[in-house]
Specification:
- Helices cover about 40% and strands about 20% of the residues.
- It has helices spanning about 5-10, 30-45, 55-60, 80-90, 105-115, 125-140, 170-185, 190-200, 205-220; strands at about 15, 20, 25, 50, 70, 95-100, 120, 145, 150-155, 160-165, 165-170, 190, 225-230, 230-235.
- Strands 4-3-5-6-7 form a 5-stranded parallel sheet, with helices on both faces. It has a 4-stranded antiparallel sheet with strand order 8-9-10-11, covered by helices on one side.
- β9 and β10 (about 160-165) form a beta hairpin.
Length: about 240
Amino acid sequence: MGKNFYLLTIFFIISECGGFEVNLMVVSDDLYYKRRIRYYFEEYDFNVKTFESIDEVFLSESLYDFDILILDIDSNKEDRFEILEYLKKNFFGIPSLVISNKKEILYIKKAFNMGSYDYIKKPFEMEELKLRIENILRYTKYQKEIPINKEVKYNLAKRELLCEDRKIFLTKKQDKILYFLVRNRGKIVPLDILGEYVWNEEIKNFKTISSHIRDIHKKLGRKIIKNVKGIGYIIE
């Protein structure tokens, strides 16, 4: 697999919550909080995957479709803000929640400036953490229909493409392409990154991607994905 695949593969797991699949990941080297979070959310039928370090995260495989990241920034070994910075600059659309014993406003500002959706100070009740996560998911994961234009919508939760309220059936590859582009709407997704997400490996012939996109447009009877020549694709 290519280098980009390993760098772009960050965190998650699958659980059922309210009829939706929820992928939850925790990055922390605080054993007490890591265990508390894991055991608490497993009681609510979450499957939780935990990591201690950034290196563990970046070396993980086939972990693209994450819904939320819980990031503990209290480690003395590394700059945990690197993860937030990386997510902000790249192509995930993954919301994050920071936990920390740092109460200074400077850390809170930094977390929000780097794209964190929320910040919770230790110590905290698990129920509060759950409420904050549910609130984030309400505006991300559980947002049903994402309008692409007046006629076309994409349902992220059900992974359905709708045109004038009619379901458009896509192949598995076509859906992965569209899902990734919708989650990163407004960003130009480079060809190699899109290829590695869809095929889990480096692909040399990018014409395969363009062929699938043409087929999506044929099924819709209109174009929704823009080709940025020599760079990648975007849904504006």
